[in-house]
Amino acid sequence: MPAQLSVNLNAVALLRNRRDLPWPSVTVLGRIALAAGAHGLTVHPRPDQRHTRFSDLPDIRALIDDEFPQAEFNIEGYPTDDFLALAEAAEPEQITLVPDDPEQPTSDHGWDFLAHRDMLKAKVARLTKTGARISLFCDPDASEEQLEAAKATGADRVELYTGPYGACHDDSAKAARELERLGKTAGMARAMGLGVNAGHDLTVANLPALARAIPTLAEVSIGHGLAADALEHGMAGTVRRYLKALQG
């Protein structure tokens, strides 16, 4: 079965926030994405609310509950107490913990699971009570020792950071090397019983090779590239193109 597609709405929200106006609407674009076949919606509500706002979360939750009950809501963020409370209130199907500093423009590395194992274990234990699946952002070349520490937190999945792979859009040899290490890390994670997600700088062009390199890939979360393509192809057409690319 191809990996599921979760559409990250942050880029839509960032465009909306350039003006004090309600468009483009994250719920309208989310509805179009889900109607076109996307399996879920992702947001990263940062403390400064520079893209997804806290007030967006109930609206997205209601959209899924009322119109697309088979879809999943994925909320990602750094596990401060404020973020944990926000995630608990939104009742997402998946919560993805990332090691970002609040001032970072975007995610650019995975957790050091050995250094943060005890902290993450406590956060995962709290969030597991919500019934959500818990995923942890992971470097593409994580060692076996690092993955064992990730497993020890009690998380269900890791999300492989695919930024370095996405940066190889003009270098096929380097892309092949990045795919090899992503495949190796995914294989070790699966052998330990961890599900594998992936995200960052994924596109229609680079998704097929990723899907072939990680045949057990469960989900991809895509925002920037998908939103950029939607300007050309429309949201519905873009979602269909990404779903086709995931078939490898």
Keywords:
248 residues; alpha/beta; TIM Barrel; 8-stranded parallel barrel; 8 strands; 47% helix
CATH class membership: Alpha Beta
Taking Cα atoms only, what radius of gyration do you get, to the nearest Å? 17 Å
Q: Which residues sit in consecutive blocks of at least 5 with pLDDT less than 50?
A: none
* Spatial strand order of the main sheet: 1-2-3-4-5-6-7-8
Distance between the termini: 11 Å
CATH architectural name: Alpha-Beta Barrel
CATH homolog superfamily = Aldolase class I
One letter per element, helices H and strands E, the order comes to EHHEHEHEHEHEHHEHEHH
Strand and helix layout:
Blueprint: E1 4-8, H1 10-16, H2 26-35, E2 40-43, H3 56-67, E3 72-77, H4 81-90, E4 94-97, H5 113-128, E5 133-138, H6 144-152, E6 157-161, H7 163-166, H8 172-191, E7 195-199, H9 207-213, E8 219-222, H10 224-233, H11 235-245
Parallel strand pairs: 1-2, 1-8, 2-3, 3-4, 4-5, 5-6, 6-7, 7-8
Helix pairs in contact: 2-3, 5-6, 10-11
Please, could you describe this protein's structure?
The protein is of the alpha/beta class. The chain has a single domain, classed as Alpha-Beta Barrel (TIM Barrel), CATH 3.20.20.70. 47% of the residues lie in helices and 16% in strands. An eight-stranded parallel beta barrel has the order 1-2-3-4-5-6-7-8, surrounded by six helices. Strand 5, helix 6 (144-152) and strand 6 form a beta-alpha-beta unit.
